[in-house]
Design brief:
By secondary structure, this protein is mainly beta. About 10% of the residues lie in helices and about 35% in strands. Strand 5 and strand 6 form a beta hairpin.
């Protein structure tokens, strides 16, 4: 038996999971996944269909950037499991503590209106031991 109100809780969790995912395109011709493209980067087809990603990815390259602001920020190249890569801003840790191989997920509640994808670390920042 389910308790009253648990169904609404499950619906809220499902909606939160869908909000945290990403919408990307997959070419219907060659099957290549891409993010924010008008044409397929492999075969130049415009026949792209939207699919939903889990949004969790892995940092491939990480850089601390001071451009256009006094505050340092982290910009990293993220590989998503669906097969595409995208440059994202990583929050949730000091910019110099984002490491290659770190798992990240999109920040809930941030849209792509500003033109950038903001992700956060899934794991806490690892400690660097200097012995």
């Amino acid at each position: 038996m389910s308790q009253p109100g648990t169904d609404s809780l499950a619906v809220g969790v499902d909606e939160a999971a869908q909000e945290s995912g990403l919408t990307y395109q997959r070419c219907r011709w060659c099957g290549t996944a891409s993010f924010r493209r008008l044409l397929c980067p492999v075969c130049a087809s415009s026949d792209l269909e939207e699919e939903r990603s889990t949004g969790e990815g892995v940092v491939i390259r990480s850089a601390v950037v001071h451009r256009y602001t006094r505050v340092a920020r982290n910009e990293s190249l993220i590989r998503f499991p669906e097969g595409f890569m995208f440059r994202c801003r990583v929050v949730g840790a000091a910019p110099h503590l984002v490491w290659v191989g770190a798992r990240v997920r999109p920040v809930a509640g941030t849209g792509l209106d500003a033109g950038e994808l903001v992700v956060e670390l899934c794991d806490s920042a690892r400690h660097l031991d200097w012995h």
